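Service request form, structural biology core

Requester: graduate student, group of Dr. S.
Request type: structure prediction, single chain
Budget code: on file
Notes: please return the result as structure tokens.

Sequence provided:
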Amino acid sequence: MRFKVGDKVIVGRHDATAILGEYKSWNMNMEQYVGKVATLTRQKESYEAWYIDLDGGLYFYYEKNMKPPINNENQKCAECNVSAPHENPNTDGKYICVWCKTSLELV
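Core staff response, request fulfilled:
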């Protein structure tokens, strides 16, 4: 396991095989947490998956679809000029301000 209880992660969407596969482990209610920073609360037994704080431990998320958040708490958003954490849920190199939700470049 790459992570441990208490770690912060960026929640990822399950891949197509998990969504369409035998276990059908994706619930559309989980979509609202994709790209958000969550704290891992416990590991799912016999899986490389975790429960998170954002949904109160209702669903599990696969570790392979998570990534650590970037460490940029002191960066200011170019749009709203607030010092707030920024997430990078995409692979396009753009960040999302957790305060104003704007896709941006950090200043």
